[in-house]
Amino acid sequence: MMTKFLRTTSSRYPTLTALYSIGKSVQGRDLWVMVVSSSPYEHMIGKPDVKYVANMHGNEAVGRELMLHLIQYLVNNYNTDPYIKWLLDNTRIHILPSMNPDGFEVAREGQCDGGQGRYNARGFDLNRNFPDYFKQNNKRGQPETDAVKEWTSKIQFVLSGGLHGGALVASYPFDNTPNSRICRSSPLCAVFQSYTSAPSLTPDEDVFKHLSLIYSKNHPTMHKGRACKAGSPSFPDGITNGAAWYPLTGGMQDFNYVWYGCMEITLELSCCKYPPASELPKYWEDNRLSLVKYLAEAHRGVHGFVLDENGNPVEKASLKIKSRDVGFQTTKYGEFWRILLPGIYKLEVYADGFTPKEVDFMVVEQHPTLVNVTLYPSKRQDGFYRPQQQHFYHHHAPPPSKPGSEDSGIFSSLTSGFNNFVNNIFG
């Protein structure tokens, strides 16, 4: 049904949509992505790419359905709603409705807590399967996560949201903590840790809190921060730091942020993981405004180009906002973006063969600040180029998967079963 809907929509709106697959699941199902934009087939130079990823836990079905509703809503309103037209004219929106289609196939409607389908067909939790900044993740890489990693490496996404179910909260990085290796092998300690966790804050804490509040404040009930049921946590303003809720290793949002500078948060959108289909219209109405407003935040902060003295783009220049030690890079067109709140900042730019440069700039509330940077070659007195030491800020390559690891799907499920008790309750 989903594939049919995506193909039909793509054929009906060829100037606003493009359908592509980033790979296949364990059982061979396509991982479909729909681009919705006035330029669906080509990158718009100077304009950001953003994404939503839903249903990475196959039994959390609300996000999957919301993505299909969002696609329909955007194409239907492009010619009648000026705000939607502006968004699609200035943004390329990539929507992956189901990262775990195999899990969804075995999930059952009406299962609110737990149930089949959370894991992929090999028994792996895909939101524990990404490289981790704080702790080496030895879980064997899965085709679904490998596809998302490859996808994220090819397109410089500025903003992202991962859609889940089992709670009602916007959760932001970090999900893991520097002391995550302590007690991780003990189920009892993992449960204890989940109730005694401290925040693990990024250098962009202010931005992540703002992004989370954009979503929760535009949702009719999320911002109230109420617990889903007795014994479940409540969240002031409907937001939380991920590690403060419960720490986890190998999460997708930390990977996006640390490896590629993409600002991603996790959106828990329903207390029931797989509610009856009859309730979907209400979930759509509750989340419609938040889903749209969140994507528009990609147009906040600073953007621009890094060029050489001849006006040619400098690809893969390393950039960092001073005092914020998670960096980002330029595209092949020399473009860069960074979501920032109003204030005065300093941009540090480095590239091989060029003299490093620092640029002061101001961010205002009304519109993004354009900053174009020209780099000049670094030469010795004898006229030869002196290559500069390139600065990397957490842009290390993901560690290779270990195909021979003892951490097979079944072993992983057994040893982490008690820890997953917490996950199945909260999302």
Automatic annotation (TrEMBL):
<dbReference type="InterPro" id="IPR057247">
    <property type="entry name" value="CARBOXYPEPT_ZN_2"/>
</dbReference>
<dbReference type="InterPro" id="IPR008969">
    <property type="entry name" value="CarboxyPept-like_regulatory"/>
</dbReference>
<keyword id="KW-0378">Hydrolase</keyword>
<keyword id="KW-0645">Protease</keyword>
<dbReference type="InterPro" id="IPR057246">
    <property type="entry name" value="CARBOXYPEPT_ZN_1"/>
</dbReference>
<protein>
    <recommendedName>
        <fullName>Peptidase M14 domain-containing protein</fullName>
    </recommendedName>
</protein>
<keyword id="KW-0121">Carboxypeptidase</keyword>
<keyword id="KW-0862">Zinc</keyword>
<dbReference type="InterPro" id="IPR050753">
    <property type="entry name" value="Peptidase_M14_domain"/>
</dbReference>
<dbReference type="Pfam" id="PF13620">
    <property type="entry name" value="CarboxypepD_reg"/>
</dbReference>
<dbReference type="GO" id="GO:0046872">
    <property type="term" value="F:metal ion binding"/>
</dbReference>
<feature type="domain" description="Peptidase M14">
    <location>
        <begin position="1"/>
        <end position="298"/>
    </location>
</feature>
<dbReference type="Pfam" id="PF00246">
    <property type="entry name" value="Peptidase_M14"/>
</dbReference>
<comment type="similarity">
    <text>Belongs to the peptidase M14 family.</text>
</comment>
<dbReference type="InterPro" id="IPR000834">
    <property type="entry name" value="Peptidase_M14"/>
</dbReference>
<feature type="active site" description="Proton donor/acceptor">
    <location>
        <position position="268"/>
    </location>
</feature>
<keyword id="KW-0325">Glycoprotein</keyword>
<dbReference type="GO" id="GO:0004180">
    <property type="term" value="F:carboxypeptidase activity"/>
</dbReference>
<keyword id="KW-0479">Metal-binding</keyword>
